[in-house]
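#structure-requests
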Amino acid sequence: MMVRTIAAALLLAAGAAHATDTVRASGAWIRVLPGNLPAGGYATFENPGDGKVSITDATSADYGEAMIHRSSTETGMGRMEMVDEVPVPARGKVAFSPGGYHVMLMNPKHPVKPGDTVVVTFTLSDGSTLAVPFLARPANAKGLAD
């Protein structure tokens, strides 16, 4: 009986360690630019769990490179920098949006046009992955629905 209780406790603890498996994304879209110019990807990530998790990497079978960037403005100058991680707070959200965090998709492996769906797979700090379908939108899009 004691062995079963210990085994059950270990299984519960293992389940708690993977609470980040519940991170989900919504409103995912990419802005497709002409030719081989990079595309910016945007989505909202929600973590309903009790533990903080971070987005640490991104890949896509449709692009040769995918990097997580943050755009900012300092003293009137726009800049963009690659980031190693984006925290998604416990019971919170983080938005990838124009002018802020985004996934930069470079070197398309085939033409991507508005209306296409591109899957980006994000790696989380607990080692799990989250595959997110992104809707391709035209270069002048400001969001998913415009």
